[in-house]
Amino acid sequence: MKGHHACSCQPNAGDCTRFNKAANYRFAVLTKVTAVLFLTCLWTPPLRAQLGVGFSTIDPPQSVYTIAFGINDHHKIVGTYYDSDGLGHGFLRNEDGRFVTIDHPRAQTVNGFGTEARGINSAGQIVGDYCAAPPCDGVSVIKGYLLTGDRDDKDGFDKDDFKTLQTPGHINSYLQHINAEGDIVGCEHDTDTMETMHGIVRHDGKVTRFPVPFSMNNGINKREEIVGFYVDPSTGIRHSYLLRKGVATLIDFPDATATIAWDINNRRQVVGVYHKADGVVHGFLWQKGKFTSVDIPGAVLTVVFGINSAGDIVGLYEDATTGHGFLLRAEDTESGGGGDK
Description:
Strand order of the largest sheet: 1-19-18-17-16
Oligomer: single chain
Number of helices: 0
Helix content: under 10%
Shape: globular
């Protein structure tokens, strides 16, 4: 897997999240949250993508490995691709299929990190991260950015289109998704990664930290409902959560050894990834308390990273040779609709 680092958590058959040091405390910190609701999860049979007009592979021309991370309500898609030299670049795919590369002007091109694009809202604002200084290993001097220069006729982005966003007192800032109101979620940490890693939300320029350690906030909708995951330091198991008005609901796929929620739309549909003891990685869609597995036919790995208001999803699948981004429109799934209004 290219560009693997802690907060980006690009999944593979092994661990998504590195442990740099052993933790000396348990998940009791979750009691700081207003309340915890343990969800009784229901499961539905696997959803197999119907490879019709609603399914598209998302691969920029220069790519040898692609990840589609975010999609907005105008079907603009952002993500990251890796070129033949192993260097990461962000990209924007317009609805007409045209690709625009996103490279932060100050990004260092060391260890293949470069620039990542992760989320896009209905106004076309894009968030992501870039390596600001070597060694670009994912745990040293990674900065988030907000990109505001999106236009349909744009063939590239100028230096002035980028705004660097950091969290005070921490070296690394990763920005994952942005809602229509401009609220941004992500995570922060220092070089010790796990001991200082917390999910964050940026609202009107103010950064609020999720009080649970070893956590990441990954998706946010217009109601400011947030999804993410945390790592239980006593077991190493990753659990997902949904935050609504300060109340945390745990979302765990039945019998999974890891469940990671990556995005939530305005209908409260949640997407992400899980795997069980066999290590096989599957995408999921969660709605109204029910899980549905998402697997691209013929793939050895499927991850769902983003969902828009219509229920269209984007993500990553790996075949026998490499990784591809994908778009699966809601009409091509057996679970379209059904979200809360």
